[in-house]
Amino acid sequence: MTLAEAIYQHSLNLPEQAAREALDFIEFLEQRYATSAAKQHDVTEAFLAALSGGLSDDFPGDINDEDWLE
């Protein structure tokens, strides 16, 4: 049995609330030990999500000559 399977088997014996707490802790550990590439991906996704609200629905299709600065 792999470690992941052992964790799963033990989680089956927990009440649902305790299993949710275990999952939260595992997700915390995932973030803590994530590679720098994974962390960079999360930062990039957050950046793009923050910017997306400022773009029109048909971006980039709405770009025309008037959009260029002179």
Quick take:
By secondary structure, the protein is mostly helical. It has helices at residues 3-11, 16-32, 36-52. The chain has a domain at 17-54.
Indicate the topology:
Elements: H1 3-11, H2 16-32, H3 36-52
Describe the 3D structure:
With 70 residues, the protein is mainly α. It has a domain at 17-54. The protein is 61% helix and 0% strand. The protein is built from three helices and no strands. It has helices at 3-11, 16-32, 36-52. The model has no long low-confidence stretch (mean pLDDT 79).
Order of secondary-structure elements: HHH
Class based on secondary structure composition and strand pairing: mainly alpha
Uncertain ranges: none
Using the alpha-carbon principal axes, give the shape: elongated
Which bin fits the share of residues in helices? 55-70%
Annotation keywords:
0% strand, 61% helix, single chain, 70 residues, mainly alpha
